[in-house]
Amino acid sequence: MRYFQVLLKKELKENIRTHKLMIMLVVFSIFGLLSPLTAVFTPDILKSFLPEGMEIKIPEPVWTDSWAQFFKKKMLHKWA
Questions:
Q1: pLDDT exceeding 70 applies to what percent of the chain?
Q2: Which of 15, 35, 46, 77 is the most exposed place for a label (fewest CB within 10 A)?
Q3: pLDDT level of residue 79 (50, 70, 90 thresholds)
Q4: How far apart, in whole angstroms, are the C-alpha atoms of residue 34 and residue 58?
Q5: DSSP result, 6-75
Q6: What percent of the chain stands above pLDDT 90?
Q7: What backbone torsions phi and psi does residue 47 show, to the nearest 5 degrees?
Q8: Residue span of the structural domain in which 35 resides
């Protein structure tokens, strides 16, 4: 157990000094916000690119869609 603590402390110091933790936090935050934002703005994006008169019915996104999408991806990692 002592070796684990020593190596963990070394890795944390290295990541803090090289700002890797901050970079990882920013990247994961961007990906975390991207999914709900994409769900909200997809209907507007599709409407702007569709020809006049064409209509696609997409249900309004709710928080359960984001939750289900997150856990669906989590299960894929378990099997892969």
A1: 90
A2: 77
A3: low
A4: 19
A5: HHHHHHHHHHHHTTHHHHHHHHHHHHHHHHHHHHHHHHHHHHHHSPTT-----PPP-HHHHHHHHHHHHH
A6: 29
A7: -65, -35
A8: 2-79
Tokens matching residue 28: 């994961």
pLDDT by residue (tens digit) across 15-52? 889 999 899 999 999 988 887 888 888 888 888 888 88
Q: What is the pLDDT of residue 75?
A: 57
Q: What kind and span of H or E run contains 79?
A: helix 63-79
**Which letter, b or e, does each residue of 3-35 get, where b requires 16 or more Cβ atoms within 10 Å of its Cβ?**
eeeeeeeeeeeeeeeeeeeeeeeeeeeeeeeee
Number of domains in the chain: 1
Q: Find all residues with CB under 8 Å of 66, minimum gap 6, and list them.
A: 35, 36, 39
Backbone torsions φ then ψ of 55, nearest 5 degrees: -135, 135
